Amino acid sequence: MANYKYHILLCGGTGCTASESPKIKANFESILAEKNLTDDVQVVATGCFGFCEKGPIVKILPDNTFYTQVKPEDCREIVDEHIIKGRKVNRLLYENPENKAHISDSKHMGFYKKQMRIALRNCGFIDPENIEEYIARDGYKALATVLEQNDPEATIDIMKKSGLRGRGGAGFPTGLKWELCRKNAADQKYMICNADEGDPGAFMDRSILEGDPHTLIEAMAIGGFCIGATKGLVYIRAEYPLAIHRLQVAIGQAREYGLLGDNIFGTDFSFDIELRYGAGAFVCGEETALIHSMEGKRGEPTFKPPFPAQEGYLKKPSNVNNVETFANVPVIINKGWEWFSSIGTEKSKGTKVFALAGQINNVGLIEVPMGITLREVIYEIGGGIKGGRKFKAVQTGGPSGGCLTEKFLDTPIDYDNLIAAGSMMGSGGMIVMDETSCMVSVAKFYLEFTVEESCGKCTPCRIGNKRLCELLDKITKGNGTMDDLDQLRNLSRVIKDTALCGLGQTSPNPVLSTIDNFWDEYVAHVKDKKCPAGQCKALKQYVIDPEKCKGCTACARNCPVGAISGTVKMPHEINQEICIKCGTCIEKCKFNAISII
Amino acid sequence: MEKIKSLADLKKKREQLQSMVGLRENGDNAENLVQIKVAMATCGIASGAKQTMEAIIEECKNQNVQAVVTQTGCMGYCYAEPTVEVNKPGSDPIVFGHVDVQKAKDLVNKYILNNEILEGVIPVNYEKVENK
User: Fold this and answer.
1) Looking at the complex, does the CB of residue A138 fall below 8 Å from at least one CB of chain B?
2) A456 within a domain of the structure (yes/no)
3) Which of A102, A104, A378, A581 has the fewest CB neighbours in a 10 Å radius?
4) pLDDT tens digits along A131-183
5) Partners of residue A137 in chain B, C-beta under 8 Å
6) A320, A340, A360 - which closes a domain
7) Is A119 inside a domain boundary?
8) Separation in Å, CA of B16 to nearest CA in chain A
9) Do residue B17 and residue A5 have CB atoms under 8 angstroms apart?
10) Bridge-partner residues for A348, per DSSP?
């Protein structure tokens, strides 16, 4: 084995791949070959580092130097300066936004300081397509330990004591779920992984699959052993090609090493994993719909009970866990439940991965201990709101969740606190909004999503959400009445109480939470016909100030719909009936005569 | 491919593979480990700093010393090249001059492992910005 002095790690996640990280890798390799350094320097494509805002990321070890926004043409300078001469390339280092100082060690960056990586421990650290690097990081040790002890109940007990709860959104205790499935005797059981990640803006499961696929394989085998299943199935969306590829490579390697297949570690336990592809329907993240989709039926939920633990895939007892949940399992076995349960809050243990998106400086993927506050996440890790604007709300839990406002900034984040605050953990999407976001439009956005994704099986969800969406549309167009607001509330409650599955039962949450927290904004739309955030087009009016207008005709000539009329050197006028509020006239006016009211 | 048949097998395999990610793990944990910086400017390289660095890495591996070995720029002691700075956790960094291959081995065996100071210590006559 070559005795490398330097490792160049570069992000091979989907985001950085799109920004040419494969080309960066090829460049490094050819430059190193040209300089005869291939035995001294290893180039490794890893999973996602999380700091997607500043990608592509290149990290150089052992000196832990973190380069951001690296371009293929920067490779030569990095090799010449850093690798050969030992001088860091300052212009590519992360710049502390507060004092403009360069930070070379990622540990000192605000984005990483407060993070704690359990589920993402190997993302950005190992080559996901090399099982040996996973083994070198204690990979498959947990599975070996569990099989050697040969006591599934004791392992379930460890999971229960650890306090791990489902990371897919609902937060059901994982150990208990396994125990329930174990109790149902059958000739065949199934361990299923839900990799149908569908919340807008959430991508933690994809990152784990892309960055550390073996952790999923190991955890599914442990779970399979505990519940008595010999078959594992991963339900993954077909729109995740890179994740599918890496998982397939990993499964192939695990089989080669005898870590999947018959008589694993020389024991009686046999386990293998197959993939099932989803077509990307949101409702298929619901476990009964997911199981039906895997069976080749329509992806529609059914009433529980029977729970999958009783009657799941092919009517056999099945256990469904989410990717991030699985990623915690090997670490809990290796480090002990005492260690895991010492992290987090009373009822929510461990860490949670969040996908930061929206109007925030550091967009990316973070993993933080439960109990951290929103303020720490948004201002310290996320680097605050873009353009120094004012924070308005953060949306958590995707289409099933709600908005949290300023008053919740110091609430410790965990499952129960988020529900008490009118939102939910969900799969961990966090969309940050500033004062330019209209909350009625936000609710409408989520409802449009739900309407599109509703499977149509039950009436409250199919028709109720459609009506909610229509009401919201009416309000954003300035035609809403105060009765409509009551109607929104009532209808939302009916849908929540009567819909068949989790999708419908939670779909009105964005409406209820925005009404509760931003009542004044709804009223402004209805009574004053104004959108305080200035986002609702129908409530905007472009007007020309006759005092300032010189009659230069620039606006009239550029208006795409011919809504502006007037004679040369005389003040012009905008016909509100025709105007489409595109804003071209404001851009073209040299006299600042046009304003939005 | 030889299949892994037991926990003991896996442990053996892991030991063989450890070095694959050892450098990364050490780099991640640098503040708790011995850090060795070899000055590798033109003068250092001309005086054999490359061989010195090789020797240090080799000896650390042989003696099972977890250390972060990096190269650095010119420290300014061109008269004493190759120069090596050793930073043990909890003690002040010491710069050694004229570190050839033999002295590099001694450095690991005597100073790092046994706290024995070697000849050729260069008195540090500057302060680092980061300590201020």
Assistant:
1) yes
2) yes
3) A102
4) 999 999 999 999 999 999 999 999 999 999 999 999 988 899 999 999 999 99
5) 21, 25
6) A340
7) no
8) 8
9) no
10) none
